[in-house]
Amino acid sequence: MLASNLQVKLPIHETFQCTVQGEGYWTGTLVDFIRLAGCPVRCPWCDTGYANGGKDLPSVPQSIAQLLAQLQSPRVVITGGEPFIHPNLPKLVAALLQADKQVSIETSGAYWQDVSPQAWITLSPKEHINPQYPVQEHFWKKANEIKLVVSTGEEVDFYKKYFIEGIKVPVFLQPEWESRERAIPIILELLKQHPSYRLSLQTHKFIGVQ
Ligand code: SF4
Q1: CA 91 to ligand 1 center in whole angstroms
Q2: In angstroms, what is the span from residue 126 Cα to ligand 1's centroid?
Q3: Could you report the per-residue pLDDT of 88-103, keeping only the tens digit for each?
Q4: How far is Cα 119 from Cα 95, in angstroms, rounded to an integer?
Q5: So where are the chain's domains?
Q6: Is the beta carbon of 126 within 6 A of some atom in ligand 1?
Q7: Of the options 3.40.50.10490, 3.30.710.10, 3.20.20.70, 3.50.40.10, the CATH number for the domain spanning 3-207
Q8: Predicted TM-score of the model (pTM)
Q9: Distance (Å, rounded) from C-alpha 188 to C-alpha 129?
Q10: Taking the mean position of all CA atoms in its chain, how far away is CA 91?
């Protein structure tokens, strides 16, 4: 890692440490979060504040050195917003790996930056919400898990063309939080049709942590 890369800055929405990953494959593990600012996709139910593009949300430049100094947990989750809109994402990932951190990145898959293959990629596609932001096809091969937010149940059909037979990575169906009372029974039915898929709940919200 070049020392000069430590001075590279990224727009940060917020960071927080020593919480648990609430969703998907790493549910229940101790993690730090780095939330990068900005996402153009505008999902109407976005629970990170980007439903309207996030114009009112904080965005403070922080250097990679500043971000490294805050770390406390073995795994760091880089999320947003949409992390892959930031050209300096690969440098951040490289610095975290060099600091012996495990790295997860959560993405809609609409953008790509050439990050280390050691990073765990959680693909949560939003093409069905906003077709202007289709998933870049190679994400279906690069992703380590797929997390599909389910509101109506039609989402699974929408992505059938991508969920190729024999997909190797775990596929999680996660109820959209505001629709969870309706979506959980829908997911239970979908699991009968797709027994290799799994239910993911936003456990951090059930236990009241960030
Ligand atoms: S892609 Fe993610 S961060 Fe962006 S608006 Fe949709 S839910 Fe929010």
Answers
A1: 23
A2: 8
A3: 999 999 999 999 999 9
A4: 12
A5: 3-207
A6: yes
A7: 3.20.20.70
A8: 0.95
A9: 22
A10: 18
